[in-house]
């Protein structure tokens, strides 16, 4: 894939502009994001991500467009798993909905910077040490097993070792001060719970990045496609969180589906030098697994609702 430096400049500038518009135009004041607003923005970000697939196919060929689309779908589905963790983080630190967008915004900026570095490192490793592809494959299969085993388990992000260490090293206030990360209390500068939540979000993204970066390299080894599929998937993460936060518990089979997807891409990496699975097949497998997990989840919720109505005693 012949990607000129101009393409990189245009894409990075476009991402910066989109982030600036999101923060300084549409979300300048702290407010609780409504379901309608979240749904609208989710649609906008998804449309941009899918539209970029068409642009890649038009400029570089349908094969590259399919690789980007598969990577985007994979990263988008893995990003959904972040929502479970974000919800627990905001609950643990008692962050009101009207301030959550600010935490997620700066969390996304950190995630983009981190993943750009990890993509560069991963590309260098695969270029110089081809055997690392097997290491990535084993890592993904192990992650899939861990995700399947830990499904349904709840954790308290506020009790993590890094957060405990942060509280020891940095003076922290138990009270919020609007959407400020730091405030003045008794004449000294202290961090607010909003900053602790931001640190927890960044830690969570580091963990997720270690899983998702090897996964995208199983789909494509082209750095431009790896970065853009990650970037467009992450850009819509904030609005998707507010759109799905209240209903995320309904998707009880989604962690199972995600573990199956990771296991598949891990196996794909292990078979790279033996049998190359076509990208179109990978796209079909990933889409089918995710669709099945969502459908099964919705059917389970529907059955529970029907059972609840039947078991509920009628009023005389």
With helices defined by DSSP (H or I, 4 residues minimum), what is the helix count?
11
Shape, please? globular
* Side-by-side strand order of the widest sheet: 1-2
- Total beta-strand segments: 2
SSE series: HHHHHHEEHHHHH
Instruction: Compute the CA-based radius of gyration.
Output: 21 Å
Percentage of residues in strands: under 5%
Structural category: mainly alpha
Mean pLDDT: 78
Tell me about the largest β-sheet.
2 strands, antiparallel
* Structural domain tally: 1
Query: What share of the residues lie within helices?
Result: over 70%
| Low-pLDDT segments | none
Straight-line N-to-C gap: 72 Å
Report what the structure shows.
This protein has 316 residues and is an all-alpha fold. The chain has one domain. The protein has 11 helices and 2 strands. It has helices spanning 5-26, 35-60, 62-92, 97-128, 132-149, 161-169, 193-217, 223-235, 237-244, 254-270, 279-311, and strands at 182-185, 188-191. A hairpin with a 2-residue loop joins strand 1 and strand 2. Helix 1 packs parallel to helix 8, helix 2 packs antiparallel against helix 8 and helix 3 (62-92) runs antiparallel to helix 7 (193-217). The longest helix is centred in the last third of the chain and has 33 residues, at 279-311. The protein is globular and about 65 Å long. The relative contact order is 0.17.
């Amino acid at each position: 894939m012949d990607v000129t430096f101009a393409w990189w400049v245009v894409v990075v500038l476009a991402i910066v502009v989109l982030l600036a518009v999101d923060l300084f135009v549409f979300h300048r004041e702290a407010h609780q994001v409504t379901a309608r607003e979240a749904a609208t923005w989710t649609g906008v970000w998804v449309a941009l991500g899918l539209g970029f697939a068409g642009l890649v196919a038009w400029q570089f060929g349908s094969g590259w467009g399919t690789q980007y689309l598969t990577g985007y779908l994979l990263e988008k589905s893995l990003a959904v798993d972040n929502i479970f963790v974000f919800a627990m983080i905001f609950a643990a630190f008692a962050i009101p909905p009207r301030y959550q967008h600010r935490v997620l915004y700066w969390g996304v900026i950190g995630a983009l910077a981190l993943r750009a570095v990890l993509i560069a490192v991963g590309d260098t490793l695969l270029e110089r040490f081809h055997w690392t592809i097997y290491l990535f494959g084993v890592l993904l299969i192990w992650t899939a097993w861990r995700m399947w085993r830990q499904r349904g388990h709840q954790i308290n992000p506020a009790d993590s070792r890094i957060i405990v260490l942060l509280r020891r090293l940095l003076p922290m206030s138990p009270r919020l001060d609007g959407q400020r990360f730091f405030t003045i209390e008794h004449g000294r500068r202290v961090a607010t719970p909003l900053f602790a939540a931001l640190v927890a979000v960044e830690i969570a993204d580091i963990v997720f990045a270690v899983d998702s970066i090897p996964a995208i390299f199983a789909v494509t080894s082209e750095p431009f496609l790896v970065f853009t599929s990650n970037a467009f998937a992450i850009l819509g993460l904030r609005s998707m969180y507010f759109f799905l936060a209240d209903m995320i518990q309904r998707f009880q089979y989604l962690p199972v589906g995600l573990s199956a997807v990771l296991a598949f891409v891990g196996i794909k990496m292990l078979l790279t030098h033996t049998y190359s699975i076509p990208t179109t097949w990978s796209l079909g497998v990933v889409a089918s697994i995710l669709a099945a997990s969502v459908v099964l989840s919705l059917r389970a919720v529907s059955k529970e609702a029907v059972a609840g109505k039947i078991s509920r005693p009628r009023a005389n």
